[in-house]
Amino acid sequence: MAEILSLHDAVTRYVEDGTTVAMEGFTHLIPFAAGHEVIRQGKRDLTLVRMTPDLIYDQLIGAGCAKKVIFSWGGNPGVGSLHRLRDAVEKGWPHRVEILEHSHAAMACAFEAGAAGLPLAVLRGYVGSELPNVNDQIKFIECPFTGERLAAVPSVRPDVSIVHAQKADRAGNVLVEGIVGVQKEAVLAATHSIVTVEEIVDDLDTHPNACVIPGWAIDAIAVAEQGSLPSYAHGYYPRNNRFYKEWDAIARDRDTFTQWIEENVMNAGETA
Amino acid sequence: MSHVEKNLDYTAGEMMTVTAARALENGTTCFVGIGLPSEAANLARLTHAPDVVLIYESGTLQTKPEVLPLSIGDGELAETALTTVSVPEMFRYWLQGGKINLGFLGTAQIDRYCNLNTTLIGDYTAPKVRLPGGGGAPEIATNAGEVFITLKHSKRAFVDQVDFITTLGFGRDGKGRDGVPNIGKGPTRVITDLCVMKPDPETKELVVVSLHPGVSAEQVQEATGWEIRFTETLESTPEPSARELEVLRGLKERTAQAHAGQ
Lengths: 272, 262
What we know:
The complex is a heterodimer of chains A (about 270) and B (about 260). By secondary structure, chain A is α/β, with parallel strands linked by helices. Chain A contains 9 helices and 15 strands. Chain B has a single domain, classed as 3-Layer(aba) Sandwich (Glutaconate Coenzyme A-transferase). In chain B, the strands form 4 sheets. Chain B has an 8-stranded mixed beta sheet with strand order 2-1-5-10-11-12-13-14, with helices on both faces. A two-stranded antiparallel sheet of chain B has the order 3-4. A two-stranded antiparallel ribbon of chain B has the order 6-7. In chain B, strand 11 and strand 12 form a beta hairpin. Chains A and B meet through helix 4, helix 5, helix 6 and helix 8 of A and helix 3, helix 4, strand 9, helix 5 and helix 7 of B.
């Protein structure tokens, strides 16, 4: 049953040094507030799983939290590079980060397989791509029924998944609206899960086919108002596209980046 | 063939977008990449192809954005979509399930056999430049019925051999799709700011089929990292119409305003 905790306590309880963490949200509902809390608590040696590392992992990588990143598209959407990810991979700053890269299709399938309790995901993928040459977690199997050669990747089973959503009710049931990405899969695939929400309400006021994650499938709920900015929360606030563009200059330089983290994360309250 | 002079005032970038847009047929179900493909696909939707079905990998199905999205998952896409599905559903049911006629992609590098590299420049273990990676492209390129590619023409982008095949065109030898079951046709058209290219039906090597007005064959060769072939029946790409330019400029202006204000 979901326990309603402060963001600080939820992260302290479930994110330990060395754990495998998936903070999901496909462009939308990215759990930035939770990511910042992980940085503030100085977590180290994390294996960070996420389809699109986005600014949130750029920040975690630059702040020295990551040991390994598992991803499928590591850019600043519509803008360019993730400079902290690049600096870590190309020059080993602040330390070398191991990467394991997939395609979106494979990662989406791997999250789904994780939620389904399967050890692997099977897809018609990676045909002719050289990604299998550099990622030993991509294998090929033969369909026992047709003989077709299909790609197989291990399912994603994070120690803890963190997602952001619009709202939870008092029993911890969560409503996710808009672009739902792989958030539900991430929560169900993980050993533990934290969901940050814009608000807690008496009634989710929803409809029968809405994306609702039951409170009993979640470990912790934490209120984080505007908790996905500069990403967005459908129905609450828009994506801060201007900040995504500004990030390019902030993250390009190590000192500017470090200063930004100091001012906006380390010295900011839990709401940042 | 001799140069065709330009009649209207437009940029090479506008010529590229309009040409890419025109390639899109009305009614096509199109899986759209962010950036230039998205710009072209929406221009098509706002001009000759009102019933084109635009699908973005964020799960937004049949979307009609008023302004161009900066990211693949902008709120604008969900708000104007017929429906929004999960990302696993998008890749499994809609793309892998064979519901997409056309994938429309951009790339950082492309080679003579249309292989795409968006992973890195240099060696994998010690990259000179780390690029964002594959994203949806590896499976879009093989599971969609066919693929259009649009990017700016330069020697840095058009290389003899890509440093890394992120996404299959036709492989290192042009035979990468031969005998593979359940695979799409692959790239059928490459549209740049200088010309339009198509793979040779036999060898799959890219061949220039039409030059944009005011562009010479020498210019194309100069911007290509291998000895590029030109078809014998080389055509001149039709110029953009005044209406296409007006719609494109309006779209870009609305987009700039929307993104500056946020």
